[in-house]
Amino acid sequence: MAALKQQPEPPEMVLITDREQQRQLWTVRESGLGATARVPAERDAWPGWEDSAVPPAMVGPYLRDLRRLLDKYGYSASLYGHFGQGCIHARIDFDLETRQGIEAYRSFAYEAADLVIRYGGSLSGEHGDGQARGELLPKMFGEELIEAFREFKAIWDPHGKMNPGKLVDPYPIDEHLRLGTNYNPPDLETRFQYPGTDHGSFARATLRCVGVGLCRREEGGTMCPSYMVTHEELHSPRGRAHLLFEMLQGDIIKGGWRNEHVKEALDLCLACKGCKSDCPMHVDVATYKAEFLSHYYAGRPRPRSAYVFGLVFYWARLASHFPHLANFVTQMPLLRHGVKKLAGIAPQRTIPPFAPQTFIAWFRRRKPRNSDGRRVILWPDTFNNHFHPEAAIAAVEVLEDAGCTVTIPNQWLCCGRPLYDYGMLNLARRRLHHILDVLRAEIRAGTPIVGLEPSCVAVLRDELINLFPNDKDAQRLAAQTFTFGAFLQAIDYKPPQLKCRALVHGHCHHKAIMKMDGEEAILRKLGLDFQMLDAGCCGMAGAFGFEQDHYELSVACGERVLLPTVRESRDDTLIIADGFSCREQIAQNAGRRALHLAQAIRIALHTAGRGLSRDTFQPQTTTQKPITALMSLLQTAIAGAGSLLSRAVGQEDRTR
Fold this sequence. Notes:
It is a single chain. By secondary structure, the protein is α/β, with parallel strands linked by helices. It folds into three domains: about 140 residues, Alpha-Beta Plaits (2-Layer Sandwich), CATH 3.30.70.2740; about 100 residues, Fumarate Reductase Iron-sulfur Protein, Chain B, domain 2 (Orthogonal Bundle), CATH 1.10.1060; about 260 residues, no CATH class. It has 34 helices and eleven strands. The strands form three sheets. The chain has a four-stranded parallel β-sheet. A four-stranded parallel β-sheet has the order 9-8-10-11. Strand 10, helix 32 and strand 11 form a beta-alpha-beta unit. Helix 25 packs antiparallel against helix 26. The longest helix is centred in the C-terminal third of the chain and has 30 residues.
């Protein structure tokens, strides 16, 4: 750089030494593939001449000649890559579905090979040769050297069984195209609408994967927890997407939506949505899984766990009328084992107890506050309403400290998040329709919706638009729905200081769909000495980790980073996790109490510089002592009997 600055008209340069800025720059570089493969209003671009390389001094002349060649064939191309090293990556809008288009592609490849060789370059700079360039290799190596390759291979592989058709005696470059003139996928009726560059087509969605293999990494990022544990291609987003593509072709994988091999591949998908954000092509296996299961189970019963967990919002609502009875059944030693077996819950798991009072019941008993403040709807999701109301109560207190007028929907609403995991998409659509109907006035008034459970916020930001892409109210609702931290940051809330250490685990859907920027900003304002864990998925993934068949994989996912880090943390370290399932995984497998961000801020409001109590760091209580449960049940029974008796006496008086 110093030498360049001494030259006439030096280029603008900057040396990036900050690690976070370096990461962001590499993210931009890695996004090149996704940004150029599917450009809105442009034809799809494909590999085929994506890795040519010439001496760095020849890059300029080579690119000018390559542009002229592209213009000759009427191609549009996006060029990116390692220009400083002479390696040129490109996505070109080849027509690979018609005979004329494929012939043009062949002709272009031959001319492009002659061009790069004329500049003393290579057909492949870093990706290897393989089938895409095997037919062209004699141009670069010559027939004599190719024959030497052939003889050498024959020594070790006399029957040609090892990776045939690649470097010697190669298949033609157009022999095994993914598309080709036979490509004609069925026009399927689907539940999701696949808007944007998928053009409303599930078939186009399955074409997203171009085999980069970033989903096969073994550490870092969010995708793909099941692959990071099993290391099996079958359980990678690439493997699953390819199986779905082959399912639509019907040549190798028969049976369409009812194929058992596809179901097996999707079974260990935790629906974390990490692939949607981390994959450069934004392959969304969680959505594909929900779509597949909706058709696979159409007209036939689902497993018991689907009705137990998929319909948890109904069961929780029912239990809210008899919480002590529900806890007696799910917490008593003998009864809880029977419940787990009946529901398909792993015996090692603890069933979370229901709160004696729901958040909604608590909220409706209190007087309104900040009547002149900014109106905000706090979303009472199933989990923070029925199981962890303390998180929602803390959120109310913090929002009111921020000057907001907090309200909740006047009807029982549920986004239906668990329904997607079991393919219950028709019911999911009805739940979202209900939300749009009930909240229409608030939506059109622009009232912000603040959600505490990241997966529920993700439904209103992601699935809602995929199911109703043309509904303006759905678009408005998605735009005005916030995570708790993002909303506080949007209104420039300044919380009091909380001076202590904290480990922060982001929910998968939070990281994939909404990002953690708002939460990180608020944590910095709190003054916390915090570490944002790069732990991927906690492994619980909603109901996934509760199911007996998935328990071992669930724990293995958590044991990669999250659970050991929590166990090794000091006793005076706050554990912050906004996801209900994340907090349960931490409580049940690391023995620590994890808090929602709202609870951490509430602690700051109440301590005001004083030290934290030991109770703040104690393990989460997830069980109820049998004698306590029995006494609570008896109290409920007595109260219920008294109520019935009172009603009977009143009815008798009215009759008289």
